[in-house]
Amino acid sequence: MPELPEVETTVRALRPLLVGRTITGVRNDWPRHLGNVDLATLQQQIHGRSFQTVTRRGKYLVFNLSDGAALIIHLRMSGHLAVVDGGAAPQPHVHTIFALENGQELRFKDPRKFGKVYLAHDLAEVLGGLGPEPLATDFTAAVLQERLNGRKRALKPLLLDQTFIAGVGNIYADEALFAARLHPQRAANSLSQEEIVVLHGAIQRVLRLGIAREGASIDLYVKPDGTRGDMQNAVNVFRRTGQPCYVCGRPIERMVLGGRSTHFCADCQI
DNA sequence: ACCGGAGCCTGTTAGC
DNA sequence: TGCTAACAGGCTCCGG
């Protein structure tokens, strides 16, 4: 569930707590949390390094360290990061912990255990396959048009494809298509230039709204401090099956596309 | 290029 | 009420 806005919210909350802090140790009780590195190597390589920057690429959190390497974390479905005092009570589902020199800890809680921790000396080792960053200034409608060109796939699974565009997940894909008034099954290469411009604007608008509202607390997601985001109160279609469309009143429909539940208004979206 | 399905997980929910 | 089964979903891998 954490998608671009939820990850961005997490990054913004963690940044002031981590930049300048030094890592003094790593603990892990679920080896599969570690994506491209084993615990011994991770401990040896990041011990004594400090956090230089805390940023985001797509749905990945990127922690640049003082030796040039980067710690990269993906929250996947249920991951949650928080900085707490080392003496704080142990919490269930915390499987990886980074101890800091100030006595605090960065705790990676992940009930469904899908999350991943990577160590990269070259970011491209982990992030190289990602598509464009949707809120970057160089992601223009023309770039979207070029990437849609010749693609026969339905729009919904294409938006979920991280190599097509980075950071969009199920919530924001449904919301962007509603905002663009485009049916989730529309073939990517069937869009007019005007529709592409509208879709481009819709993707950016729903992601920015999600960030402004600090994420959608629909299932497990909460901010690092444990409080809820507010985007769940601003969705138009996601998980609103059977409830009236805010624009036309027709009940929102649900279908499965690319294995994902997809919510849309059959009148508004064509 | 694209699609579908299995697998990874476990808390929550639907259904009996 | 209490149980089980299905479901949720980001991503990867597989076969077609």
Tell me about this structure.
By secondary structure, the chain is of the alpha+beta class. It has two domains: 4-127, MutM-like, N-terminal (N-terminal domain of MutM-like DNA repair proteins, Alpha-Beta Barrel); 141-264, Orthogonal Bundle (Helicase, Ruva Protein, domain 3). The chain has helices at 4-18, 39-46, 124-127, 141-148, 155-160, 170-179, 193-212, and strands spanning 23-28, 51-57, 60-65, 70-74, 80-85, 94-100, 104-109, 116-120, 253-257, 260-264. Strands 1-6-7-5 form a four-stranded antiparallel beta sheet. A four-stranded antiparallel beta sheet has the order 2-3-4-8. A hairpin with a 4-residue loop joins strand 3 and strand 4. Helix 4 (141-148) crosses helix 7. The two termini are 26 Å apart. The protein binds a DNA duplex (16 and 16 nucleotides) through residues 1-3, 32, 59, 74-78, 93, 110-114, 116, 150-153, 157, 160, 162, 169-170, 219-220, 258-261.
Draw up the topology in text:
Elements: H1 4-18, E1 23-28, H2 39-46, E2 51-57, E3 60-65, E4 70-74, E5 80-85, E6 94-100, E7 104-109, E8 116-120, H3 124-127, H4 141-148, H5 155-160, H6 170-179, H7 193-212, E9 253-257, E10 260-264
Antiparallel strand pairs: 1-6, 2-3, 3-4, 4-8, 5-7, 6-7, 9-10
The protein binds a DNA duplex (16 and 16 nucleotides) through loops.
